[in-house]
Structures are given as structure tokens and as C-alpha cells.
């Protein structure tokens, strides 16, 4: 299997160029569901140890259904497929440019949640116009074990998020273990309270916000990802959910810039335009860098050929 690795604002992406499963030619949501139902061994083997680690997001290239798209893509982690992934879209654009498959300029990628516009501004800088994002519930209070009541908004930016405006813990790199424990407890609190996204969807990402360290940034965040890893980048879909909340609260006007800082200090520049269905159409700009090209080998006798899954 041939893969190209990159990181976007510190968050890793592994693009599967050759050797992934053939998911047929149906609509992308059906192919994504098939990946999750039938090929989780493949997903885990690509992203988990011993070939990877739990922060890696995989990107399986698939033929698009639309002729105007440069590629179709299904993002996945060690547990499931992801509807969209902002950092991985930036990483994918830079990877395709590295492979000379796309050039500087505007492109479209088809994802299971819709087509996203990708503008490759230079070999490392990409602006992504995401699918329309929206707030689903405002000011939801849940009880969190060992902490007490925590209030946040439920919003969708291509994935489901619970967004807490004022983190109960300092957003410092030295606190990553405590922040991970806290957000896992918040996610359990949401589950115990029966708080979900639309149609009972699992809220698999939790986002905490606080003051930035970098003076030019507007905010800093910590993002828990579905598999329990934290996002090193400011999280493209999480930023989209944040923009939806800022817009609805009247705190950010269409086109007004917002700089979001991640827990490792990397930043995305973003803004939004009003969407057609009452939400926002986010634009997120960030940088990615290719880190390696590799052939993954799966020896039949290797007891961990499908990843270490404890
Ligand atoms: O950038 O959207 C994102 C993302 C989701 C999970 C990890 N990164």
C-alpha cells in the first residue's frame, strides 16, 4: 500500500494513494458507510501503531461521482469514517500538489458530506470553503463527573462538536493529559444526559476555548477527537462549528477575519459567508507540509498487521 504523510498545523494526515479497498462507484455516503462496516481492519492498520499512531487521520482517495471534482475522498480514524476533515483536506491538497496531480489554483474535492472548494494558494497554503455549518443547540448544561455543571453549544461543521466557551482548565501544552481527561469526561456526560446531534448523532468531538497566547489570534482551543487523541491543529471542522456559533451570537460579521490558535500554538485564519439554510459557509486557511512517502507492508504472519487495538 502506498501512502503519503503530511501534517497540517501539526496534525497528521496519511493519504492512501494505492492499495486501499475498492468501495465501488455509488454515492460517497454509501461508500463511507461500507468502509466503516467492512474495512475497519484496513483503517486501523493504516492509522494505528505499529505503522502509525492514534492522532493520524487517514484519507482514502476514491473516484468522485462529479466530473468537476479533482478527487473523491473518505476520511477515517481508528474508529470510524469522518464526514469531513478540515486539516486533512488541507493536507490532501498539498499532497496532491506534491504528486503533481493538481496545480496552484481552485479545485473541488467530493466528501461524504458534500463538495468542498479548495484553493491551493502556494505549494503549502490552502484555503478550504467547507460545507454549510450550523449551531444545533445553544447553552446546553450537563453534569460532568468530578467537575460539576458544564455549559456548551452543540454545532456541526462536517462533524459534531460540543463547544465550551471558557475552558475550566488552562489551555497549556503542559495540561494536555488533564485536558484530554476532562474532555473525555465531558463527552461521557453528554452521553449520560442523552445529548446528541441531529437524528441522534454521537457528539464525538469536544472543543474547549480560552484566551490565545499569540497576540494576533482571537482565541485558543483544545479539541478532543473521536478516538481519544487531541487535535494538534485548530481543527477545520471544529473551526467551522465555532464560526456558526460566533455568527449566531452576533459576535462575528460575514467576511470578518478570525484567527484560531490550537493547543500547540499553530493557527488557522478563517471567516464565513451566510449559508442558504440559515447556517454559515466557513472558509479556513492553513498550511501543510509533506513529511514522508512510504510503502506500508502487511506480512501475513504479523500479529499486529491490523494495528494494535487494546
Ligand atoms: O481538522 O476537521 C479537522 C479535524 C477533525 C478531526 C481532526 N481534525
Key terms:
about 300 residues, alpha+beta, Diaminopimelate Epimerase, Chain A, domain 1, 2 domains, 5 helices, globular, binds pyrrole-2-carboxylate
Estimate the helix proportion, in percent.
10-25%
Total number of beta strands: 16
Query: In what order do the strands lie side by side in the largest sheet?
Result: 1-2-3-4-6-7-8-16
- Between the first and last Cα atoms, what is the distance in angstroms? 24 Å
Could you tell me the radius of gyration in angstroms?
18 Å
Order of helices and strands: EEHHEEEHEEEEEEHEEHEEE
Our count of domains comes out at 2
**CATH topology category name of the largest domain:** Diaminopimelate Epimerase, Chain A, domain 1
Give a description of the structure.
- This protein has 310 residues and is of the alpha+beta class.
- It has 2 domains: 2-129 and 290-295, Diaminopimelate Epimerase, Chain A, domain 1 (Roll), CATH 3.10.310; 134-274, Diaminopimelate Epimerase, Chain A, domain 1 (Roll), CATH 3.10.310.10.
- Helix content is 20%, strand content 37%.
- The chain contains 5 helices and 16 strands.
- It has an 8-stranded mixed β-barrel with strand order 1-2-3-4-6-7-8-16, surrounded by 4 helices.
- β3 and β4 form a beta hairpin.
- It is globular.
- The mean pLDDT is 97.
- Bound molecules: pyrrole-2-carboxylate (PYC).
- Pyrrole-2-carboxylate is lined by residues 11, 57, 85-87, 159, 225, 231, 233, 235-237.
